[in-house]
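Bug #77: duplicate submission created two jobs. Keeping one. Sequence:
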Amino acid sequence: MISIIQQKVDRIAQCIFTKIQKSGKESFGLYSEDFGLLLFLFYYSRHSKNKKQVLLTERYAERLLEQLIGREKSHTFCSGFAGILYLFDHFWRIIWFIG
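Kept job's structure:
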């Protein structure tokens, strides 16, 4: 039996997956929306082990990076480049050490 918490988390993830497939305009920064969503989706897709969700998360990361190139950026942690770089450093460490 799936717990109520797991059902809620699954529902949140489904809403986010639906949103990112429809959205075309991204906002950058770790706390300002899209890269924060990417952080959630990274962990959720690792937890769910659903291949489709893993692929959607990878495509979303690629789309964010493509749109990041050539844009004017802030250098703050919360809503700028520093937070984005920290996020990818975090991903690298998780993948490297945990696998």
